[in-house]
Design a protein that fits this description.
5-stranded mixed β-sheet; 57% helix; 254 residues; two-stranded parallel sheet; 2 domains; alpha/beta; 4 helices
């Protein structure tokens, strides 16, 4: 049998309807969004003003922190000032308590000072008297020291060198000549004395040694030995003037 042919029925297409529906929904969504945004932000946002306000807020915050720090410092200073005042008051109280003993000690020290001043005046007066006595003793002439020959000096012509602590004294025909201790090696008078002794026949040098004059005798002896002249020495006690009258020949070296 032959099959029966199906009848061709047209099917409706929904594509244009869906597109229109989508457009309508989109338009409604856009309209609703526009209205909502318009209601939320009716005025425009000023970005510069917002940044300026943010900076002002930050400055205010920093200033508040500075004020808080300053307030803490002021509180600390107030506490220190209160402690200092309390310490000062305590010190004043202690000073007032110690004032009376200190005044008594000061009065005692004043009395002691007066006594010491009187004693010092007495000692000064005694010192002046003692100085006057010493000046009187220094003013007295010392007894002359008579030098006597020792040993055999017959036929010799003695030439005298007095050795003292402060220097040499050369007895020449023109009179005594002093040579300081620091200038013996460079003294022209001493060189002339040695030269005159070396040129005189049978001359001898006698060292008159005072207390403290031994070192200078050693210095002078070196120059005398160079000219090969006889030498002798006589100790002289004290510092009085010399009396050489016991010698037959008066010093005449030039």
């Amino acid at each position: 049998m032959a099959r029966r042919r199906r009848k061709h029925r047209p099917e409706p297409s929904l594509f244009p309807f869906l597109s229109i529906l989508a457009c309508v929904i989109g338009a409604l969504a856009l309209l609703i969004t526009t209205q909502a945004v318009g209601q939320i932000a009716e005025e425009p946002v000023d970005v510069d003003r917002y940044e300026a306000l943010a900076e002002q807020i930050e400055r205010d915050r920093q200033e508040v922190e500075s004020l808080q720090t300053l307030a803490a410092d002021v509180a600390t200073l107030r506490a220190e000032l209160a402690a200092a005042r309390a310490a000062q008051l305590a010190q004043q109280s202690a000073g007032e308590a110690e004032a009376t003993p200190l005044r008594e000690r000061l009065q005692a020290a004043g009395s002691r000072h007066s006594a010491l001043q009187r004693e010092l005046d007495q000692l000064a007066e005694a010192a002046r008297k003692r100085a006057s006595e010493l000046d009187a003793l220094r003013g007295r002439k010392e007894a002359p020291v008579r030098v006597r020959p020792s040993g055999s000096g017959y036929g010799l012509f003695p030439q005298f060198i007095e050795c003292r602590r402060e220097g040499l004294r050369l007895y020449t025909a023109a009179g005594p000549v002093d040579v300081p201790a620091h200038g013996i090696s460079t003294s022209a008078a001493f060189r002339n004395f040695v030269r005159g002794v070396s040129q005189r026949e049978n001359a001898s040098v006698i060292f008159l040694i005072r207390p403290g004059g031994v070192p200078l005798r050693e210095i002078a002896l070196k120059s005398i030995r160079e000219v090969r002249v006889r030498t002798a020495e006589i100790p002289v006690p004290g510092d009085g003037p010399l009396d050489l009258s016991a010698f037959e020949v008066i010093p005449s070296a030039s």
